[in-house]
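Escalation from tier 1.

The customer reports that the assembly of two entities below gives different structure tokens on two consecutive runs. Tier 1 could not reproduce it. I'm attaching the input and our single run for tier 2 to review.
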Amino acid sequence: MEYGEIIKILLMLAAAPLISGVISRIKNNLRLRRGPGIFQPYFNLAKLFKKEERFSEHSSWLMKVTPYIVLGSVLSAAVFMRAGDLILLTFVLSLGRFFLALAGLDPASPFGGFGSSREMFFAGFLEPIILLAVFASALSGGGAIEASSILAAAALFLATLAETSRVPVDNQETHLELTMVHEAMVLEYSGRSLALIELASYLKQAIFFTLIMLVLWPFLVSRIGWYLLSLLVLAVIVAFTEVSLAKMRLFRVVDFLFFAGILALLAVISAALGV
Amino acid sequence: MLNWEFSFLIDPLTVLFLFIIITISIPVIIYSLGYLSGKYSRRKIIVGQLLTLAFIVSMLLVVSVRNTLTFLVCWEMMTLMSYFLVMFEAENEKSIKAATIYIVMSHVGAAFIAAGIFLLHRYTGSFDLLVLRSAVLPAGSGDLLFFFFLIGFGIKAGIVPLHLWLPYAHPRAPSHISALMSGVMIKVAIYGLLRFVFFALGIQALWWGGVVVLLACLTCLVGIIYALIDNDLKTVLAYSSIENIGIIMLGLGAAMIFVPLGQPALASLALVAALYHLINHAAFKSLLFLGAGSVYRSAGTKNLEKLGGLINKLPWTSAFFLVGALAIAALPPLNGFISEWLTLRVFFLGALAAPAGLKVIFGLCVATLALTGGLTAACMVRAFGMTFLARTRSAKAEQAKEGPLTMLLGMGLLVILLIGLALGAAPIVDLLAKVAASTAGLPVQTFTLNHYIVSLPGASLSPLLIAATIFGALVLTVAAAYLFFGRPRRVIVPTWDCGYYQLTPRQECSATGFSKPFRIAFSFFLQPSRSTQKIKDSHYHVRSLTYESETAKIFRDFFYLPFIGGLFLTARGMKRFQAGSIQIYLAYILIVVLVLLFFAGRF
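Tier 1 run:
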């Protein structure tokens, strides 16, 4: 791999928190609040990186190594996305999630355990949606915008909401015990470890946004101007979605994901028919 | 007429299976030296080891004999040896029940295989596999033979809905035997399918592949859903074996679709994917069963609800089990990922070449495979987490400590094998391509660029590069964190308890609790029912609470129990003929002789 690629991926890592900053800014403005600036995620990260880490007395080495594995796996997912292997990408992302779910169980906290259970529950249903969307775009060749690519992108968008733990599946803003999913899983993390995990989720969000564009219309990714514009558009859509919907009950999420799966299947059917 | 000679058929397929059986058996035997010691009497250990050796030898014979009758004999020997081994703890009622279910179902399977073999003999006049291959069968006879072999070998392999014996028998046997049964024996059944359907019959119709793919999808999903909700560590692994057989069958089914479609390259690739997953599963499932054996031996239980916190008490076993869990969850860079990637690529590539209807079916296969993968990850998080992480939930498991060195050595060898299977993907794919070609009678295809890169049209896979990237990213992360922010300052604190009161192990997420969302999501299939019982001191204070949750075993209740009921009903009806009077029996003999005389000329 060339150095240029590495620099691009590191740039993506550096810029990824900005997307969340923009989304949260738009959300706050839509709710007629002022809210923090778009660079707030960086301040949070900087603060967390400097702080000490607190580990539960019941936790093992697994909890200490997990943050590095999570960020490492998301970074290599970015590499594999640039290399064009989307199957590999989804499997590498699962690697990070696997360790994160184990780390949720490690400190013997009831929150962490149930967070892990729910995260793996969503993940199980998300994987077929993502791979079906990728399958549809591989079938249609992925040149121009077609019915199949729009359907696949829509399915991926719903999957992205779930993957990035956003309303209506999860809620990043809450720390109310009963409603957390992803946040519950990482509840025991603090300091540098938490910063690494958050950084990884920012990058994962950027990866998923890029994946949507790749499936919808690869042209969007080829030019930096179009890419940034599409990121912004996606951020606006996500913000509007989050503001206008309420979080679902856990078991309604199955219906939500089932709907996304049906969309992805329709994408495959229309790709098979050539429309 | 019965030219029964004892000769071997040594071709690439046989060599592959001999290799698998031997490579898995050696670590398992090493492990068993430590596992059995101190647990059983000396005499029992000797009997057990002799039986194990006979079991391994019979499997070696099954995959290497040339005569189909000899095959049948060796197949029976394999079944009997494993039957005795399932009953190893015969003082336990459950072992006897499991072994009985196993032997009965195995014999139903053997009957189908025997019927197939004798039908083949009827058509060709030969028991020789090589003669059978070149013989031309009468038109339309293939379908029946295919069904006989599919059912016969399907029972042994544990294809849903013929899987019923597997979750009973595999967990009951001693762990090293479970490892052999799940890791190797059910693969021998796949060998049977390959040998008789691909090699002897040849793929004669497109719908054969359709049937296999459909059964495979069913097997994957049913296997993993049951694996997710069971609370016995070894039963979880047994159900997961069913699921993995499903993945192997998906590859086989795809190959059976591509052969009649006239796509030899894709058919070879599908067979390669199936065989690769077969080897992988042999390696990681035996590792996991051995790990479960270590847990059982040291903690005295394999109930997930009573384990926990073993990661500090069994550091080596937990590390080995983690590697196995990562591999079976198809996570890169380990070997399970490689075969799953290949299987997915088969469907991706196949869809480009197939007609529109098949494209959608392949899409559904991809979705099934992905769903299975996601659920497997959840299942393995649960199995590993409940066993090794958090706090220990029973007094017995508190005392756990690592077993003898031979046990660790056995597992360690398998871990090395896993890593080898992951990094050596390209040479392995090359070898498997040759096996696939010779078995299915296809031209040899090359799916590799060089010794390091697997290369398919439109995609390539370099396991070394993947491993390097992931480790590189990991090292980069650690290095950057230490470089910019120095050594982390770590403080050990109690787990967050909402400022309430001291948490106890009972407040952790339990194994049943972990699988609750899955039970609800799949309630249409599992039909869970629960009962709670509260004993109250007063209106406000509950003294004790019993919670029971049960799921319906659909296949047992709607498929097997009615069947067994019918059998007993028929038997009761037949009882009337058994009056015990000698005159009536003589009359029966007379009637039979008359009937035979009457029909004698017609056969």
